[in-house]
Specification:
It is a single chain. Helix content is about 35%, strand content about 15%. It has about 350 residues and is of the alpha/beta class. The chain folds into 2 domains: about 140 residues, Rossmann fold, CATH 3.40.50.2000; about 180 residues, Glycogen Phosphorylase B (Rossmann fold, 3-Layer(aba) Sandwich). Helix 6 crosses helix 9. The protein is globular, with a radius of gyration of 21 Å.
């Protein structure tokens, strides 16, 4: 049997898909298990030995890039998949599910989108409500294929061994990586809190190394922070995700909001201090025992809002002092200790 899994969401979503991929392998141990993801997410899955093949698709928001995509679609059709499952459920995933031509095509029963999206699948399932962790929701999505849901205790990803030396050159001394940015601004800890935390952490002897995303908004945030804290140490420019994973694996810990790097670090076995406010820690906390969560005040913004529209940002309730205490507890904990949630 040949199975194709499609996923065109964020880096964090790709990490949280791994338990479902393993469950598929457990249910169909002799199958050829292929995964189709956007190009930048491929390093997350590329070194998992139990996957048959990781396919990549170029993706630029708002552009189809048909000339580059069509040869990949033709190659996928030649595989003659028996089954496919699309976890994204957006127009792109639905169209590719149909074009790849598997005999059984499972997809989500989402609202909105193209009216003919339902015709792209032969089976449709309603995703469970977002009242539990995303890994469990994804597993439930495959219940119609007889895949049983179960508790997820850890997720593991591997780095490219050939990148160990380049990673060491970028991060010679393992320190505490602080990720300033986030996919949307309302998930970012306020800049003034980072500035105060930097001073407190250095007094306490924690070596901090800062990084952020590559978007214009996040680059602007970095420039603002550098103006406030000229002495702050920043990670040099990292060429791609594969190298970033190798660098992240060297870190003593990671401090960030609800972002992809939090899930990447947890899957690499790096302790994570996650700052949650606008999103649910119940649904999106990093998986594993080597993380702690700081909870801000209840968020007043609409769940779909990209920016914070409240008079007081929910993450501002997490003070620099509380973040420092959380970091101290995280670093001192035995790796086998259960996760601790500190309420702010």
């Amino acid at each position: 049997m040949k199975i194709l899994v499609l996923q065109f969401k964020s880096l964090g979503d790709t990490v949280l898909l791994i338990p479902t991929l393993k469950a598929l392998r457990g249910k169909f141990p002799d199958c050829a298990l292929h995964v189709l993801v956007k190009e930048e997410a491929a390093p997350i899955l590329r070194h998992l030995p139990w996957l048959t093949r990781v396919w990549t698709m170029p993706r630029v928001r708002g552009k189809a890039r048909i000339r580059e995509s069509w040869p990949i679609v033709r190659a996928l059709r030649r595989e003659r998949f028996d089954r496919s499952v699309d976890f994204g459920g957006n127009d792109r995933g639905a169209i590719l599910s149909w074009l790849c031509g598997a005999r059984r095509r499972l997809g989500p029963m989402n609202r909105g989108g193209l009216l003919w999206r339902r015709l792209c699948y032969t089976e449709r399932v309603t995703l469970p409500k977002a009242d539990r962790h995303e890994t469990l929701r994804l597993l439930d999505f495959l219940s119609s294929w007889g895949v049983a849901s179960h508790e997820i205790k850890e997720i593991q990803i591997a780095t490219d061994p050939a990148l160990e030396l380049p990673a060491q050159a970028l991060l010679p001394t393992p320190g505490i990586i602080c990720h300033l940015g986030a996919g949307c601004s309302k998930k970012q800890w306020p800049l003034q809190h980072w500035v105060a935390f930097h001073e407190l952490a250095l007094r306490a002897g924690y070596p901090l190394v800062f990084t952020t995303g590559m978007g214009a908004r996040e680059r602007n945030l970095t420039e603002q922070f550098k103006r406030c804290v000229p002495e702050a140490v920043f990670l040099p420019s990292v060429p791609d995700l594969a190298v970033f994973l190798a660098v992240l694996k060297r870190a003593r810990a990671l401090i960030t909001g609800d972002t992809g790097p939090a899930h990447l670090a947890a899957a690499l076995g790096v302790p994570v201090l996650s700052l949650f406010g606008p999103t649910s820690a119940v649904g999106w906390a990093p998986v594993g025992h080597r993380h702690q969560i700081l909870l801000g005040s209840p968020c007043q913004c609409a769940p779909s809002a990209h920016d914070c529209h409240s008079g007081s940002h929910c993450l501002a309730a997490i003070t620099p002092e509380q973040a420092l205490n959380g970091l101290a507890s995280l670093v001192a904990r035995n790796p086998g200790t259960a996760s601790l949630v500190l309420r702010c």
